């Protein structure tokens, strides 16, 4: 989820994250309830274009019956008798809770389910990214695919990257399965596919069921998440070519084995799909230094996921405690991670910035200003649930210093 170029994640997936096409079908009875925190495991960084992939371990979903719809739960601090009576724990709910049965994740008579680490480096035969398209598939070889999350060029390298693994039941009363989201960049856009993966009985892994195939223009699958009771949810942003200067539309579908895709956009719980906005203000400290204060606000209607701030600065600006910040024309890494924000909640951070004497600035900085830039980003693959910032126009802010600001600098 940066300096007009947004965040590293947005750079890597810009073409693919703004396209979609509708598909339809009805809805399950259950709702994700409460604020369930999920452990996050950082998997490394993609150089230049791919951001670090952060993958969560499976977590149990809290369930509540909701008259046939997946709807928003009451706020977490609501403790009325009605709410308490309706709550159902995963243990009480029985089958289809997305909890992992004893022994299933580690072997035994049931499916052997992989973790993210298990799949990285493995060879797996996957469905074609371009069914029946002949030579196009040579750019993303899948027979077998060698799975990676290693650093490398995001565009045109043809590597098959593992983006996320979640565990969920795909059919009522069925076993918990591992659904993996894979991506490939044969050119300047990412294509994706989601498949269920299990042990092949010989110490390796195999794709056991095709879940969804992403297409950059037709069905640009961005993320996956376990459904509240049965199935896997698919997040699909709006069609390519639409105005990207404001909020983006999106659709959510649910896949279940043997059923058509269901459009559950209006009934799925939208935790993690929200609008994070950042503003940066400057304050003259009167001693030749300046304070840059960033305010991050959850301007959307739903709780966010945890998020990161990424910083960059003109070489003419030194930021206390942060040596070696990249210039704003370069790729940057997250500087700090923050907990999720409730709707309307804010968090602030500040840094002391010391400008060099003006005659040491570059010509571009002297003409247009020296910038300290802050970007906010929910890591798309950092949780079982979705993490999607639907308005990219307000996820970065900057403090600019000009000649008048440093005229009195000692």
What is the count of distinct domains? 2
Q: Please write the string of helix (H) and strand (E) elements.
A: HEEEHEHHEEEEEEEEEEEEEEEEEHEEEH
> DSSP helix count?
6
- Helix-residue proportion: under 10%
What coarse outline follows from CA principal-axis ratios?
elongated
Strand order of the largest sheet: 5-6-7-8-9-10
Q: Give the biggest beta sheet.
A: 6 strands, mixed
**Assembly of the depicted chains:** single chain
Model regions low in confidence, pLDDT < 50 over at least 5 residues: 1-108
**Terminal residue distance:** 41 Å
Number of strands: 24
Structural category is mainly beta
Radius of gyration over C-alpha positions, nearest whole angstrom: 23 Å
The overall pLDDT average reads: 75
What proportion strand?
Answer: 25-35%
Name a few traits of the molecule.
Immunoglobulin-like; 6 helices; six-stranded mixed β-sheet; 410 residues; mainly beta; disordered N terminus; elongated; four-stranded antiparallel β-sheet
Characterise this structure.
Helix content is 7%, strand content 32%. A hairpin with a 5-residue loop joins β11 (223-226) and β12 (232-237). Mean pLDDT is 75; it is low at 1-108. The chain has a six-stranded mixed sheet, with no helix packed on it. It folds into two domains: 66-268, no CATH class; 272-408, Immunoglobulin-like, CATH 2.60.40. It has helices spanning 8-13, 81-86, 90-93, 116-119, 363-368, 403-406; strands at residues 40-42, 54-56, 63-64, 87-88, 123-124, 145-148, 160-169, 176-184, 191-199, 205-213, 223-226, 232-237, 250-255, 262-263, 273-274, 276-284, 290-298, 307-313, 317-319, 334-338, 346-355, 370-378, 388-389, 396-401. The chain is mostly beta strands and 410 residues long. It has six helices and 24 strands.
């Amino acid at each position: 989820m940066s300096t007009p170029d947004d965040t590293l994640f947005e750079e890597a997936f810009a073409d693919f994250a703004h396209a979609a096409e509708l598909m339809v079908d009805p809805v399950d009875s259950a709702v994700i309830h409460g604020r369930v925190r999920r452990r996050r495991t950082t998997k490394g960084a993609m150089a230049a274009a791919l951001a670090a992939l952060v993958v969560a371990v499976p977590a149990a979903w809290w369930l509540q019956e909701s008259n046939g719809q997946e709807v928003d739960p009451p706020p977490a601090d609501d403790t009325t008798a009605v709410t308490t009576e309706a709550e159902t724990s995963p243990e009480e709910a029985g089958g289809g809770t997305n909890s992992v049965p004893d022994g299933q994740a580690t072997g035994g008579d049931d499916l052997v389910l992989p973790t993210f680490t298990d799949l990285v480096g493995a060879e797996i035969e996957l469905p074609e990214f371009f069914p029946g398209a002949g030579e196009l598939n040579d750019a993303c070889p899948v027979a077998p695919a060698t799975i990676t999350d290693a650093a490398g060029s995001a565009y045109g390298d043809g590597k098959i990257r593992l983006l996320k693994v979640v565990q969920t039941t795909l059919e009522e009363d069925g076993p918990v399965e591992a659904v993996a989201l894979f991506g490939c960049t044969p050119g300047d856009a990412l294509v994706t596919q989601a498949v269920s993966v299990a042990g092949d009985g010989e110490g390796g892994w195999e794709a056991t069921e095709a879940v969804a195939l992403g297409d950059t223009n037709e069905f640009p699958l961005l993320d996956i998440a376990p459904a509240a009771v049965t199935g896997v949810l698919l997040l699909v942003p709006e069609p390519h070519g639409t105005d990207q200067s404001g909020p983006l539309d999106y659709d959510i579908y649910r896949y279940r084995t043997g059923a058509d895709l269901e459009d559950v956009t209006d009934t799925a719980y939208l935790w993690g799909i929200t609008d994070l906005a950042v503003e940066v203000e400057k304050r003259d400290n009167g001693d030749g230094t300046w304070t840059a204060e960033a305010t991050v606000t959850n301007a959307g209607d739903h709780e966010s996921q945890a998020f990161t701030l990424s910083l960059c600065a003109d070489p003419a600006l030194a930021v206390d405690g942060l040596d070696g910040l990249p210039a704003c024309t370069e790729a940057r890494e997250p500087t700090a991670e923050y907990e999720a924000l409730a709707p309307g909640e804010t968090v602030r951070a500040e840094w002391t910035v010391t400008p060099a004497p003006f005659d040491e600035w570059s010509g571009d900085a002297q003409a247009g200003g020296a910038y300290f830039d802050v970007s906010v980003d929910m890591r798309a693959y950092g949780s079982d649930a979705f993490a999607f910032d639907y308005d990219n126009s307000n996820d970065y802010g900057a403090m600019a210093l000009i000649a008048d600001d440093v005229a009195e600098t000692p």
